[in-house]
Design brief:
Number of domains: 2
Number of helices: 5
Strand content: under 5%
Number of strands: 0
Largest sheet: none
């Protein structure tokens, strides 16, 4: 059955996404300086804001995955476990405040962020299934490939100099 929080959260994400897109649109374009359109300030945040808004609409209108009265395995009624919300918050703030421009190079910070997020969120499942070694190897591969791809995209496509 669909979680009771889907509609308010859908509206929240839609409003946040639209606000981000609007503010990104208002940023200076720097056209008078001959800036490449793919490197204009606000392009990536604007696109991300639009994507957040689209996902907010999807969340608002989504339907139950199964007929009413049939519970999905592991479904908790749409309420996230508090430790997962707190962990996501701590990881994001830690990356934004502690790693970006202050600590390791961007590629290393991004790789560590991805690795830690995967390991910490999947740890209970891997421990219960006895697949912790597989989980660590998989998280390391995803972290390394993801960090390399993110760095390459920002530096070579968007021409953003990363710390």
């Amino acid at each position: 059955m669909r979680g009771t929080h889907d509609r308010p959260f859908g509206l929240f994400w839609l409003a946040l996404g639209l606000a981000i897109a609007f503010e990104s649109w208002r940023m200076p374009r720097l056209e008078e300086q001959g800036i490449n359109p793919y490197t204009i300030p606000g392009l990536v945040p604007g696109l991300l804001g639009l994507i957040l808004g689209i996902f907010g609409v999807v969340l608002f209108f989504r339907r139950a995955p199964m007929a009413e009265g049939v519970a999905l395995e592991g479904n908790d009624g749409g309420v996230a476990e508090p430790w997962r919300v707190a962990l996501a918050f701590l990881l994001c703030v830690g990356f934004g405040v502690g790693a970006l421009g202050h600590g390791p190079p961007f590629w290393l910070g991004a790789g560590l962020f991805l690795f830690l997020a995967i390991i910490l969120f999947e740890y209970p499942d891997h421990k219960a299934a006895g697949t912790l070694r597989y989980g660590i190897i998989r998280a390391a591969l995803v972290g390394a490939i993801g960090a390399a791809a993110i760095t390459l995209i920002f530096q070579e496509i968007f021409l953003v100099r990363l710390p």
